[in-house]
Write a structure and sequence with these properties.
Two copies of one chain form a homodimer.
Chain A lengths: L11 H12 L9 H14 L10 E7 L14 H11 L4 H8 L3 E8 L10 E3 L17 H17 L4 E7 L3 H13 L3 H4 L8 H17 L6 H8 L2 H15 L3 E4 L2 H13 L7 E3 L8 H7 L16 H19 L3 H4 L7
Parallel strand pairs in A: 1-2, 1-4, 2-3, 4-5, 5-6
């Protein structure tokens, strides 16, 4: 597998120029808070003072998970393909929010347990009808995991825009994400698991025990790649590949909730510089997401108690990216507007 | 003065219908978090299941403050009129964010210490060239305060849209807002004052002492109206009037930061039911705003460390109001999309 070469965005000259441009705008110093941080980050990613948001797109990766056989989800597995159908019919939350914010939406079948046949609007990258049950064996073979990463890279390489959001659909994938989180951060499993789509407290405890037993069984998985292959999902691996490639291409990566962040965690353990390219759209209500964000030293833009996935947080945060670019590009400066500056 | 009659939005039948509509959408129960709460609130305000966001507008009220003579601002008073010019030239942050989000913007001269003459785009409701210095005398006479409230009511009555955001510009107005906050909530002045546009710690302490001395001097101001007249601003009083009328007309009130919330605090002490109509766009970085929101039991949508005013938080939060309406109006239901529901 060819690993993308991701460069840190650090550039002190440009950073100083961006600071100057931001501070000269007609507003008290620092008064646009997180939008100022965001504008500077986008400038560094794009390596220019002329920051822009062009042709943003959200990729939604869908796949099934063998571990559902352990009874770890509140919804039946069929919901994965039914929701893919819902995406194609434009009836899901992500369709609504992407359309509202003029964001392209691409739905990728990374490994759903269903025959869709050729369908308009569905990008077929199915590698298997779901993963194996990681309670019993590795979720993916090394070859399948590599193929998923590479398929993701190829998809990211085809995007024309400079902002890519990531979303997912896959019944059972909070269980995979919690296992990845535990293995990659060392945070106890009990603090990684949550209710997902709506488990009872007993259900959450059962999910915890399933993961703990699997972690004990697969104690040999240590590298980020092995951990991904052992506990991940086809959608998670494909996302991680797309993230790596998108960062290499110096796109802004818009990160959604718990599962998307788990894919990033894998990618960041492979290539730490990827974090320079990430904008964290929101903090999910899924227990564990805040701690995962903390482990990445990430500060999310929104905190709306969302726990829907699909990339909905990305679509909802997109207007803030536009706002960051727009204030830098469109606001007057103290000089141009002839506004007096702060008294000394 | 004719006080608007604001009715509580409580309606159990409609609330149950809205819950049903929201819960039938193809998503896990409650998974859209704050957007679900917001959708329900808008439905109750509009008294319908067919919620809509039409012709949103932001009113920016500008005025000057006599208390600047006490040296309580980091910027000179001229910045008030200079920023009004900047609004008219479309160079300020609020121009950029309102335009981005297709929101009408109206700039109101409530009492700026400057002769603008007749100007396109400026709504002239000037009642005086700023308030008196409340360190020495009441900021406004009762007659002026009443006139400001009534002018605000008349402005709100002219708006055609169903969402009104509120913004302000006025050098010195965080001092007025902090005094109002203290008088109306009982929170100690030291916890109400903040850096405003960028005071030093010494400057903040001086501001605190100015307010404490004024509060001692005007101990007779007890009713919300008297407190407003004594410590408020022309823009604050006019905003409070516009808020009261907009709520009577069952519009959604979009509340910005520290100063706008202080105007709402006055209005809410006059008519508590107004709070049913308020959407709190963000929590400002101005120290005191979080406590003011707590006093109103308000949960803001955004927390971006903004402290710019002008209604910028309202403009930035507007896409979330659209999202709330859109998911209710456009998402498929489990039935329509034939998606399986949660297992029992």
């Amino acid at each position: 597998m060819l690993t993308p070469a991701i460069h840190a965005t650090r550039n002190e000259t440009l950073a100083a120029e961006l600071d100057r441009a931001i501070n000269n705008k007609t507003k008290p110093l620092g008064s646009l808070g997180a939008l100022e941080t965001l504008a500077k980050q986008i400038g560094l990613i794009q390596n220019t003072r002329q920051i822009s948001i062009s042709d943003p797109a959200i990729l939604v990766f869908a796949a099934d998970h063998g571990v559902v056989a352990e009874g770890i989800s509140a919804y039946p597995q069929d919901v994965t393909w039914q929701m893919v159908e819902n995406f194609l019919a434009k009836g899901a939350a992500i369709n609504v929010f992407a359309a509202q914010n003029n964001c392209a939406l691409y739905v990728v079948d990374a490994g759903v347990n269903h025959d869709f046949g050729p369908r308009d609007g569905l990008i077929d990258r199915k590698l298997a009808k779901g993963t194996h049950n990681f309670a019993q064996q590795a979720a993916m073979s090394n070859a399948t995991c590599t193929a998923a990463l590479e398929a993701g890279m190829a998809l990211a390489a085809e995007l024309k825009g400079n902002v890519v959001g990531f979303g997912e659909m896959g019944i059972g994938n909070t269980t995979a994400a919690a296992a990845l989180m535990h293995k990659l951060t060392g945070i106890p499993v009990a603090e990684c698991v949550g209710a997902g789509t709506g488990l009872s407290p007993d259900g959450v405890l059962h999910k915890q025990h399933v993961i703990e037993a699997a972690v004990a069984r697969h104690s040999g998985a240590v590298t980020p790649f092995d951990i991904l292959a052992t506990f991940g999902g086809l959608e998670i691996a494909m996302m991680a590949g797309a993230m790596l490639k998108a960062a290499e291409l110096r796109k802004v990566l818009l990160i959604d909730g718990f599962i998307v962040t788990s894919a990033l965690l894998v990618a960041a353990r492979m290539q730490p510089a990827i974090l320079d390219y990430c904008v964290f759209s929101h903090c999910s209500n899924e227990q564990g997401h805040q701690k995962m964000l903390n482990a990445l030293q990430a500060r999310p833009l929104l905190n709306l108690g969302l726990r829907l996935g699909e990339g909905t947080g990305c679509a909802l945060a997109l207007p803030l990216l536009h706002a960051a670019a727009n204030f830098v590009n469109q606001m007057a400066t103290f000089e141009s507007a002839q506004v007096s500056e702060k008294s000394e």
